[in-house]
Amino acid sequence: MKLLGKEISAAKVMAVVTDRLSARGLGSSPAAQWREAAVEPRVDPLSFNVHALEENADATRGLPLETHRDGLAGRAVTLAKRVFRQVGQIFINEALGRQSVFNGHVRDSYSQLSSEVLRLRARVAELETASRRVVGPNADASLKESVSALAEAIALGVPAGAISGAVVEVHEGAPFRSAVKETKKSPAAKASREGAKKPAANLSRDEVKKQTATPRNEAKKPTVAQAAPKDSKPADMKLAERTAVKPNKAPVVRAAPPRRSTRRGK
Amino acid sequence: MGQCAIAWQRVLRHLGFTGEVYAADVAPEWRALVRPADELKPAPDDLVLYHHGIASPLAGRLMHLPCRRAVVFHNVTPARFYEGTRLAEPLLAGRAQLAALADSVEFSIGVSAFNARELIEAGHRNVSVVPLFVEPERFTAELADASWLTRFEGAGRPRVVSVSRVVPHKRMEDLLSLHSELRRIAPRAELWIAGGYAPGSKAFQALAAKAKSLGGVTFLGRVTHAQLVAAYRSADVFVSMSEHEGFGVPLVEAMACDVPVLAYGAAAVPETMGGRGVVFDEKHFAALAEVVQELTQNADLRASILKGQRARVAELSFENTRAKLAALLPRPVSGASRTRPRVAVVVQRFGETLTGGAEAHAREVALRLSKHAHVEVLTTCAKDHLTWANELPAGEEQDEGLTVHRFPVRRARAMRAFNRLSDSLFGKPQDFVTETHWLAEQGPVAPGLLRAIAERTNDFDAFLFFTYLYAPTAWGVPLVANKALVVPTAHDEPPLRFGAFADVFTAPRVLMCNTPEERALIEAHFPAVTKRRVVGVGIEPVPGKPERFREQFGVDGPYLLYLGRMEAGKGVLELVRRHQALVRDFHDAPTLVLAGSGEVAPRGTRVVCTGRVDDETKWDALAGALAVVVPSRYESLSLLTLEAFASGTPVLGNAACAVVAGQLARSGGGLTFKLDDDASFRDGVQQVGAQRDEFGAKGRRYAATARWDTVIGAYLEELELIRRTS
Q1: What does the pLDDT read at residue B634?
Q2: Residue A45 is inside which H or E element, if any?
Q3: Which residue among B134, B220, B444, B719 sits deepest, i.e. has the most Cβ atoms within 10 Å of its Cβ?
Q4: What pairing do the DSSP bridges indicate for beta strands B395-399 and B402-407?
């Protein structure tokens, strides 16, 4: 054991302590090097939220039984809660069925959105790297022109497919994007859509494909939110990016609980 | 976190920033001090400081607020301590929210360097450290609960105290292990654990069972501030076994109470300790028990540690936090002074028709100052000082050449609930948050008024605040302390003992006291009081016509006069009781005339209530009275006494009121009596009746010195000093 304190002579105090322990037939552990406490690792919000939604989507599954009450009353309350859950589960399922369906949709929507966010972040980072190459002393003129065109496209709000380098048509059939198109009714939105087509016209489809580093299939690769089968663990999910103290057990993705015999929301 | 938010609100006021505290869940009884987050509607230039800990819906909301944003991080307990409980997920979610906030905030503050490192780890970029602070004057021996001191007096030794909620990461089981070892070498050792706990939880029940088997362990539960001070001050050693602290306020509180601190060096603990006290890195309980013994018995070691700890408390001071926040939030410096001074008068109510000594005083000074300076009045829409209901229109209006800005009061006051709260707090030491809560309930809380003070700092050379007792003064003074003159009108009343008013008496440039007694009272309660001078008020007597008053109200024969608010607090009811006793005993007892309006309307034989009277009637009544009676116990200056003197009428004043007693002693213009003693009142009436002319003449001479030109001259002198040095 090691002691710290400006007003104490740690060695002297420890000597006194060791003597007293020895007199009692006890030993003291040797002083090790003082270690500064490590900070907790970052918890990635997107991955965490996907996990949290996954874990809690089923509204029919109860939280751990707890009570703040003392003694007999506390035990009675806990027992009552347990009995209520067992007896009433079928009714709980019935009452919360639609809530579970809704929660499932929220979870899936969030998964898709967070996947999109991750893909866009990667793309922005890529463009920033390219941009740095363009403004440097050995900038490539043709690359500069293409990146400028892409930057303009981004500024005009080209749909994500075009920004990512994948042609717009690839995603036209996707419900998420078409829904966005349909809901944009304002003149500003219309102008933006029209403007968005311009860079695509200036930049040939081949050029777009050539100058975007991310292959199409890579851009579409599932990140956090890709719909992994419910019972399997997504490969690239990470909550704690670095482990400083000891790994947290809480964020580990658990397999979905086995299906119960009673009807569930989804 | 809540305590920090309230404490930092005060610090920010000292930096010239005004603002309010919002929370996701606010109990109804706290709504005067803390507003529900739904009401948060910041302007684009506003800065929202979000105090972050466990997951909160406010974190998501913050990201979408259309204003400047910053995070104050108090740390989140690692979820591993709460695995399998409902708390694990919100703890983890709190960390996810922290990371999500990184790109949405202008800057981030860790209350310790440890927290700052976690902020950086979570992706925050512009990160600073602003430590929490503890005010040692709130932990002095005098503030300890006497009954608890007695309770602990006979306890065995060594006495170990630990202060925290009984929750897993605080490792109460380790405290019990230490206690078990300590009992081996000191069988009468005691362990006190102060802090809330859930008696129904299995974890607590297991702890309680172990504690019972060991003996000498007391779970004190939630304690009041005075009890907490008593627990600290009765202990020999403070021990912390906590395995995660983002700061560790109890460590510093224990230091402020002169208890040696022995703490496990987890997370931010070594940093908070600052090398003082004793920090250990391994829970070797037998060895720690010997260390506790050594800290208890070795007087030299103990004295040396306490000295170091005091230095650490001084480092973690209000001034330190203020300096750190000032560096983060710079303010533009004051504008240049103009030829004609510009003064803002800040007062809780303002208007010609309002009853109230301080308010009348404020109006008189404002009107007279306006002949020498540009004066604007910042006040509320309230007319009634009990409810603070918004009866007057908000906005700008003119009053005899003065520009008056009225701001709405956010919340009316419920007197019954307020009185209950006051009764529960008065006479006992309280912590800063509790006192601030009382002040918020006292009101009037007018956020617009405080905002106007902060935003118009550079428009005025000085801010003249009236009455220490109300929120506009208590919270407005720190905003413009360097330009503030305060007319405290302080009485010897329970709230004067609240440390929450310290800023009013220590921060401004000068206090303009009404009497030497008021100045002495303030000096007694606030040793660090700022510059103060006795200024008083002026009076301009008007010759009265007593017969006109007698005719108007049908008053025959000699009469005693009370003039002022008809309130129980003014002693009116006791005065009527004394008078009725006089009437019972003497057939020629004088009539009692009560002139004024208010919450009470006493009735009695030979009692005449005139209601509120105008100025002319007042002077008529004063001139004809046998004596003027001042029954109030709480007066900072009795204007009525001076007016009675000027009319040549003697005064019978409450002996318990030091101010009136002082005025009477200095002038010789009357006598004091005991408000609860019939004989004393009777003697007083008889004496002033017999020697009315002698008393009257002395009073008249004294009143001649109370001149407005002298008073206003003093105000202008102080104004000039502020202008020169601002």
Answers
A1: 82
A2: helix A45-56
A3: B444
A4: antiparallel
Q: Which two tokens stand for residue B112?
A: 């310790």
Distance CA B234, CA B231 (A): 5
pLDDT in tens, B635-664: 878 888 999 999 999 999 999 998 899 999
**Cα–Cα dist A26/A17, whole Å:** 10
Q: Is the ipTM of this complex over 0.90?
A: no
Decide if B170 contacts B203 (C-beta within 8 A).
no
- Position B353, amino acid: T
CA distance B257 to B446: 37
Model confidence band, residue A230 (pLDDT cutoffs 50, 70, 90): very low
CB atoms within 10 A of CB B415: 12
Q: Does A69 touch chain B (CB under 8 A)?
A: yes
Q: What is the DSSP letter of A255?
A: P
CB contact under 8 A, B287 and A70: no
3-state SS, residue B587: coil
The overall average pLDDT reported for chain B is 93
- Tokens standing for A28? 């003291």
Partners of residue A16 in chain B, C-beta under 8 Å: 290, 294
CA–CA separation, B311 and B276 (whole Å) = 8
Sign of the C-alpha dihedral, residues B313, B314, B318, B324? negative
* One-letter identity of residue A151: A
Please name the residues in contact with B707: beta carbons below 8 A apart, sequence gap of 6 or more: B538
Q: How many A/B residue pairs have CB atoms within 8 Å?
A: 159
Percent of chain B with pLDDT over 70: 99
Report the pLDDT value the prediction gives residue A259, as an integer from 0 to 100: 43
How confident is the model at residue A172, as a pLDDT?
Answer: 33
What's the rounded mean pLDDT across residues B251-266? 97
DSSP letter, residue B332: P
Tokens standing for A2?
Answer: 């090691």
* Contact at CB, A40 and B88, closer than 8 angstroms: no
CB B312 within 8 A of CB A47: no
Residue B382's DSSP bridge partners are: B390
Q: CB–CB of B155/B234 below 8 Å?
A: yes
Query: DSSP secondary-structure letter at B467?
Result: -
Closest CA to A174 of A186, A161, A190, A185: A161
- A237 CB neighbours in chain B (<8 A) are none
- Cβ <8 Å between B305 and A44: no
* Whole-angstrom distance, CA of residue B293 vs CA of residue B393: 68
pLDDT digit string (tens) for B566-596?
A: 888 889 999 999 999 999 999 999 999 999 9
- By C-alpha distance, the chain B residue nearest A66 is B201
Task: Tell me the pLDDT tens digit for each residue of A50-88.
Answer: 889 988 889 998 888 878 787 788 889 889 999 999 899
pLDDT given at position A111? 87
- Partner residue opposite A248 with nearest CB, options B80, B284, B305: B80
Angstroms from A139 CA to nearest CA on chain B: 30
Could you say which DSSP state residue B390 is in? B
pLDDT tier for residue B334 given thresholds of 50, 70 and 90: low
Taking an 8 Å cut-off on Cβ atoms, the answer to whether B282 and A4 are in contact is no
Say which DSSP state B571 is in: T
Q: Per-residue pLDDT averaged across B463-492, rounded?
A: 95
Catalogue the E-assigned strands of B500-558. 510-513, 532-534
pLDDT confidence of residue A209: 39
So what's the pLDDT on residue A214? 37
Tens digit of each residue's pLDDT (9 = 90 or more) over A25-51:
887 776 667 777 788 999 999 989 988
8 Å CB contact between A170 and A182: no
Among chain B residues, the shortest Cα distance to A28 is held by B287
Reference B177, options B165, B189, B163, B194; nearest CA is B189
Closest to B284 (Cβ–Cβ): which among A1, A36, A245?
A1
Nearest by Cα to B98 from B53, B37, B49, B47: B53
